Fold this protein.
Amino acid sequence: MRTSIFKQIDNPSEFKKQLLKWAQQFGEIIFLDSNVAYSNLSKYSNFDMVLAVDAFTAIKTDYKNAFEDLFQYQSHTKDWLFGYLSYDLKNDIEELESNNYDGLHFPDLYFFQPKKLFFLKGNQLEIKYLNLCDDEVELDLIEVANYSLSITNHTLPDIKQRISKENYLKKVTKILKHIHLGNIYEANFCMEFFAKNVIINPHQIYNQLNAISEPPFAVYFKNKKCFLISASPERYLKKTDSKVISQPIKGTAKRSFDKDADVQLKTALFTNEKERSENIMIVDLVRNDLSHTATKGSVEVEELCKVNTFKQVHQMISTVVSEVENTTSPIQIIKTTFPMGSMTGAPKISAMKIIEDLEETKRGLYSGAMGYFNPNGDFDFNVVIRSILYNSTNQYVSFSVGSAITSKSDPEQEYEECLLKAKAMFEVLLNK
């Protein structure tokens, strides 16, 4: 059971910073920020910010029977649960493997039941503490207001590229052969940038990355020595009552400081035949995924190829929705749609096999999903992209980027798109 307390917050943006500072003392943290500036994506947003800290219970497992284990945990706990699903849970759904190099060593699945929860919407703060610690609320709020954090000096990483440009172009050419042979229509091919023996301050890096990008699905995650710093613009899946919402992104264009040029770039993205075909292919895939649990005839495309503008890029986003019976398990809805189609390609299984063969890094949490379940079984998860992953035990830092390869793809342009997506991560890690 939880106790709810409501407070008015005079300065929400300052309060968020103080709250995240205060949270650093805990071993388990999930901080979700919707950066409310993006009102065109906030139609389905419940909160401006959520903070969950301090695990009361938790589940951590590899991919084997992961969805069954999560079902048991979620259905028995019937409480707020926060955590992630790594991309490699695909191996629990289909006959697939993940044999590429893994420098991070995160669990394939991790969720925790927090003792302490904070929800911010506008100026209204709701605090939900488990009854066993609800007497700590007032003291914690005093701490939040006065919390100071020492700054950690971080070493400038020597960032390396797992796949060289030359090798990248060869691999994309191989994908194009698969497409021309009819094995797949589209594949999301990714490559890793990494650094070893690095000490960073994840909290500091998060603040910098979030300030650069201001994405609608930003995440700061900590599980002991494992960290995710995410500036994700993409929602994977949300369930509210009987409605399920997926918002795949396919199609990226750079921004310009010149207003007229920026409008032209946005228009060019909207009318770009290749980018639209990429998006529509994934919309079809998502429609098919949602149909596994949808009530008959309820799958609809609410928005097709809508261009949304973020601080660093324009993105083409579609919204696909469905209705489900109230008896359908939330875990089943996730299992039948995972991983997000925008990060695999189409047909999904064939694409996942091909990209596993050509990529050189185990994706792990990258291109998986981070989010939460509420006590009623509703949920909201992002897609883990535009994200930095860090294991502070072995001092390994990693970020990956990818793009969708279709029959119209030019390998050089796909490479440039990857570098555009990597720009903000380079900036914050190299203090530029």
